[in-house]
Amino acid sequence: MVLTTMAAPMQEPVLSTPLLSSSATRSSGSISSTTSSEADDSPLSSQRFVVQDVTKYELPCKPLPGFQSYKSLAMLSGHIGSVSCLALCGEFILTASQGKDIIVWQQPDLRQFTKFGQGDGSVKALVTVSNKVFTAHQDSRIRVWKVSRSSENVFKLVDTLPTTKDYLGKFMKQSNYVHTRRHHKRLWIEHADSISCLAVYNGLIYSGSWDKTLKVWRISDLKCMESIKAHDDAINSLVACKGIVYSASADGKIKAWGKQGKTSHSLLGIMEGHNDISLNSVVVSEDGKWVYGGGSDGSVMGWERNGDCVSWKMVSETKAHHMAVLCMCMMGEFLCSGSADKTIGIWKREAYGKLCKVGVINGHEGPVKCLQASPCNVGTGFLLYSGGLDKSIRVWWVPKVEDNS
């Protein structure tokens, strides 16, 4: 990737990580919905897929006076549906869409490497762990893909959650069945509606669903360990940090879950927004002290964690966008928010968790659905990847502004 449009000299990131590095694991959440029957784009046809070239263009942006401009580096096209989630996976970027396709882009030139996953239902979320990719789908299943360079099929489907072994071990016992909202019975290890988000932490995969439950899966044997009736409405986003899992819901609440030793997860605390506002996204600072939730009214609310008694208090509320906040990510002291208003807000965390706007990125032609910041520094800034309902993935350079006051 050539970064010749920068205002300051920059170096390309050194991407020497393995195929899928556990340290590079990331996940993305999903927007709120009350039904799993959303309309997908038309299915893949049998026509041959043509690799799309990377398009470069300049960014119309609104940085604060005295700061460097945010730069657009590339626009990637090729998805047949709206881009729903993305993840950085070592030398690759994985992007998925409501059109059921998952595209693997190779860094740093951002060329398409391969494509997989067609026909398995709209992809809502994905995470990577070591040499495996976990994808969550609208059909309420999680699919497990193994990554191997020694095979023609580089991303090979190896299992589906819940696994057949897990299912057969429980289906005979009536006590393993629970009632769903449609008065049907399902095994407690099964999601009853679309899976909207995934998170990974300490050998576990967490899945949140529109069925209001949070399920816990063990990576080593893919067994479902717990099912928690977590919220009163759809779960839209999950994030795990410092032993705590945070779930954001359309019921307007963020709940914190944790466990002691080998015991089951229990509720540690509740962060409440407004009763009539859906919380679509949740992010946590690296030290676990600050929690931020993005709302359907365009607001971003922040809470500070009191580590001594494991409690949270609201410290900020910012009208970040004119329309709903659909996704967020954090990079150090910077928070990036993507909105249905087609813009990306760049915020810097200041004293007491307050957010100060340092810029707005324009460029998407539809709502911004997913965001991910790269841990690799590029010059005096970082790379930001965004996916939108305009079916495009865009790559931005964001400066790490300094306060010279």
From TrEMBL:
<protein>
    <recommendedName>
        <fullName>Myosin heavy chain kinase B-like</fullName>
    </recommendedName>
</protein>
<keyword id="KW-0853">WD repeat</keyword>
<feature type="repeat" description="WD">
    <location>
        <begin position="188"/>
        <end position="227"/>
    </location>
</feature>
<dbReference type="InterPro" id="IPR001680">
    <property type="entry name" value="WD40_rpt"/>
</dbReference>
<dbReference type="InterPro" id="IPR045182">
    <property type="entry name" value="JINGUBANG-like"/>
</dbReference>
<dbReference type="InterPro" id="IPR015943">
    <property type="entry name" value="WD40/YVTN_repeat-like_dom_sf"/>
</dbReference>
<feature type="compositionally biased region" description="Low complexity">
    <location>
        <begin position="18"/>
        <end position="37"/>
    </location>
</feature>
<dbReference type="InterPro" id="IPR036322">
    <property type="entry name" value="WD40_repeat_dom_sf"/>
</dbReference>
<dbReference type="Pfam" id="PF00400">
    <property type="entry name" value="WD40"/>
</dbReference>
<feature type="repeat" description="WD">
    <location>
        <begin position="361"/>
        <end position="396"/>
    </location>
</feature>
<feature type="region of interest" description="Disordered">
    <location>
        <begin position="18"/>
        <end position="44"/>
    </location>
</feature>
<dbReference type="InterPro" id="IPR020472">
    <property type="entry name" value="WD40_PAC1"/>
</dbReference>
<keyword id="KW-0677">Repeat</keyword>
